[in-house]
Amino acid sequence: MKEYVLTGGPGTGKSTTIEKLVGSGNYVINEVATYIIERNKANNGPLPWTDRDSFQKQVLEQQTRWEAEVPEGIEKVFLDRGMADGLAYYKMDNLEPPAELVEAARKANYAKVLVLEPLKSYEQTTTRREDAETAKKLHELIKQTYRELGYDVESIGAGTPEERARMILEKC
Fold it and tell me: pTM of the predicted model, to two decimals?
């Protein structure tokens, strides 16, 4: 099985593009952080802006679980963010990441890391709380983090979600 990471800063269209890949019959793992944020809001659990370490531990556990649950015989898996994304958020906050996250990011063996470049407009949401400037900084930190881990980071430029999904499939 080959895992392909689709990443980028907040609001770059990752999840919308992933939806198009699902519609084409591809196997995807949706963004774990968004799932955990929504779940924890409902049950008063830790959130990234109130308890980064506890939140990130939950993300790491869930990401590991979802990746392990990929059915046998699946050849390609598209991930809405990979293990290293959490490291970039720690860098942004000038915090030391937990050793488990560092190790998981180092052990990951992704076939490719594809970065969706920022869209022309940026909107904050209840889960995407960063302002546009912070989102740009995170975008660059994410690319830098994957490069530091030895990945060649390939860009997916502007376009409709359908065009971006087609570009991704051509590269994978």
Answer: 0.89
* Pick from 65, 73, 78: nearest CA to 15: 78
25 phi/psi in degrees, rounded to 5: 85, 15
Per-residue pLDDT of 121-148, as tens digits, reads: 646 555 556 666 777 898 999 999 999 9
The answer to whether the beta carbons of residues 40 and 46 sit under 8 Å apart is yes
The count of other CB atoms within 10 Å of the CB of residue 103 is 12
**What residues does each domain of the chain span?**
2-171
User: Which one-letter amino acid corresponds to residue 53?
Assistant: D
Using the structure block, give the residue that is written with the tokens 């968004």. Answer: 34
Q: Are 87 and 107 spatial neighbours (Cβ–Cβ below 8 Å)? A: no
Fold of 2-171: Rossmann fold (3.40.50)
Distances (CA, A) of 4 to 7, 23, 97, 129: 10, 17, 23, 26
